[in-house]
Write a structure and sequence with these properties.
Blueprint: H1 3-27, H2 36-43, H3 47-50, H4 52-63, H5 65-75, H6 77-96, H7 101-129, H8 133-164, H9 169-172, H10 174-188, H11 203-221, H12 223-226, H13 231-253, H14 267-297, H15 302-308, H16 310-331, H17 334-351, H18 360-387, H19 395-430, H20 435-464, H21 490-494
Helix pairs in contact: 1-7, 1-8, 1-10, 4-7, 4-11, 4-19, 5-6, 5-7, 5-19, 6-7, 6-10, 7-8, 7-19, 8-14, 8-15, 8-16, 8-18, 11-13, 11-19, 14-17, 14-18, 14-19, 14-20, 16-18, 17-18, 17-20, 19-20
Length: 495
């Protein structure tokens, strides 16, 4: 094996290590959902406090993404990622053996901190590893499966582990993965330190945006419980908005901003964030509401719910790892993006007509397969469009911005669609419908709203994105390459 082959092999092994670390983070957003009843019983959670098993993770994860991305640009992406993996792994052990409800919630908050560090810089490291457009499209297919399929894998794994073992294993499974990721990244990813011209950390700006994002997540996830027009919710969201305005004003004036505002003058970056917010909202709600439909209406247990997601995961894997990159290289970014999001919208539309006496094969499996097809196709072009215009020294920040938009979009979309579902269910119960009928009616309206969100994302991406041509002879920024690297061996993606 010559030096070129060795370098290529190392690069792909590094990709798999980074994706494994990010998968560990992404699936933990949903892995606890199926196990919540068992956790509530064992640790004596109240109904109100139980939501904080999920909310504590989302709060710190969403709040620290931008800060983590900037820290990666300033002090080295690998260092930030390894610190995040270590924190996440240790926190997972603490969560698994939590003796009290409060201890578990704190552990989940620390998991969110570690998860933010990993997610914010993993994409930047991958973009640095792959500069050839052909290789980058394949790499983004792998990473896209992790990001889009992580939610489905989380529900699948959560159901299997809780059904066959106990809820403690949904956290313990992270320990060997975290150790493996640490070992592989230290050996496969170069420890590249940024130049002295990278600037210093804008501490005030970091504090403003971190607190603003945490308040925004807190207001959104608590909106259904407190009421969207309640003084509490409106005050929290207003304070978050005020802090964001103060952050923007500061970033426009400070010499070394945390987030250079010129980033938002890049058309593809902004449009990708809008598409990401809409799509993530629809996807988060789809995973959450479909699990509730399977359990609350069709009577599935935790293990059956997990296994129900297996076809979607399998289809998503095939499309992300084998098909998406070929579509991008042949047709560019926009056509696969539009088709993929249209399939996601069709999936949600089918869920919206699932009846109270539905069956898995007729009413659940077809939209699951469509969801796998659409998400597997679309995520790759979204990532390529978002990161393609960004300079290498700001890749960590851009990665944090991408992840923040998906996180905030997912949290907001889930909260809004759950509120729509709950409102419809309440009105049906009041009119005399049975509980299964009322639940189904609520889910149907929420799924229909999610279909509209995914369809709107497809239209916006198709009309307004202006991605650079996927020319195998150009680098990430469209410049000609004197010596383009050869295409990776097909086996590399299948490893």
């Amino acid at each position: 094996m010559n030096a070129t082959d060795t370098t290529r092999r190392t690069r792909w092994l590094a990709l798999y290590a980074l994706c494994l670390g990010d998968l560990m983070i992404v699936l933990d957003t949903n892995i606890v959902n199926v196990a919540l009843p068992s956790i509530q019983s064992d640790l004596s959670f109240s109904s109100e406090a139980l939501a904080w098993v999920v909310n504590a993770y989302m709060l710190t994860f969403g709040g620290f993404l931008l800060l983590s991305g900037r820290l990666g640009d300033l002090y080295g992406n690998r260092r930030v990622l390894l610190g995040g993996v270590a924190a996440f792994t240790v926190a997972s052990v603490a969560c698994a053996f939590a003796p009290t409800a409060a201890f578990l919630v704190v552990g989940r908050a620390v998991q969110g901190l570690g998860g933010a560090a990993v997610s914010a810089v993993a994409l930047a490291l991958i973009m640095g590893l792959f500069t050839d457009p052909g290789e980058r499209a394949k790499a983004m297919g792998v990473f896209g499966f992790v990001m889009s399929g992580g939610g489905a894998v989380g529900v699948l794994l959560g159901g299997v582990l809780t059904g066959l073992l106990t809820w403690h294993w949904i956290f313990l499974v992270n320990v060997p993965i975290g150790i493996a990721v640490w070992f592989l990244v230290t050996r496969l990813v170069a420890d590249e330190r940024p130049s002295e011209t990278s600037g210093t950390l804008d501490v005030t700006g970091a504090a403003l945006v971190t607190v603003a994002l945490m308040l925004a997540v807190y207001g959104v996830v608590g909106g259904n419980e407190a009421g969207w027009t309640s003084n509490r919710t409106l005050s929290i969201l207003a304070l978050a908005a005020a802090l964001l305005v103060a952050f923007v004003i500061r970033e426009a004036r400070v010499e070394n901003p945390l987030v250079p505002l010129r980033l938002f003058r890049l058309r593809n970056v902004v449009i990708s964030q809008v598409v990401g917010v809409l799509w993530a909202g629809a996807m988060f709600a789809c995973f959450f509401l479909s699990a509730l439909y399977l359990q609350g209406v069709l009577g599935f247990d935790a293990l059956q719910v997990g296994l129900a997601y297996l076809p979607s995961c399998a289809v998503m894997a095939v499309m992300s790892l084998r098909i998406s990159d070929k579509l991008v290289m042949k047709y560019g970014v926009r056509p696969p993006l539009v088709v993929g999001l249209a399939l996601v919208a069709a999936s949600l539309a089918l869920f919206a007509i699932a009846p109270v006496d539905g069956t898995y094969v007729v009413h659940v499996l077809p939209p699951m397969v469509l969801l796998g097809l659409g998400a597997g196709i679309a995520f790759n072009p979204v990532l390529l469009a978002a990161m393609g215009d960004v300079e290498p020294h700001e890749a960590g920040l851009a990665s944090g911005v991408v992840n923040t938009s998906f996180m905030m979009g997912g949290a907001l979309g889930l909260a809004v669609l759950v509120a729509i579902s709950s409102s419809r269910t309440g009105s049906l119960v009041a009119s005399g419908s049975s509980m299964p009928e009322a639940l189904t009616g609520g889910y149907q309206v929420a799924f229909a709203a999610g279909a509209v969100m995914a369809g709107l994302a497809a239209v916006i991406g198709g009309v307004y994105l202006r991605p650079q041509p996927m020319d195998a002879g150009a680098d990430a920024h469209g410049a000609s390459l004197d010596e383009p690297e050869p295409e990776p061996e097909p086996e590399a993606c299948a490893a």
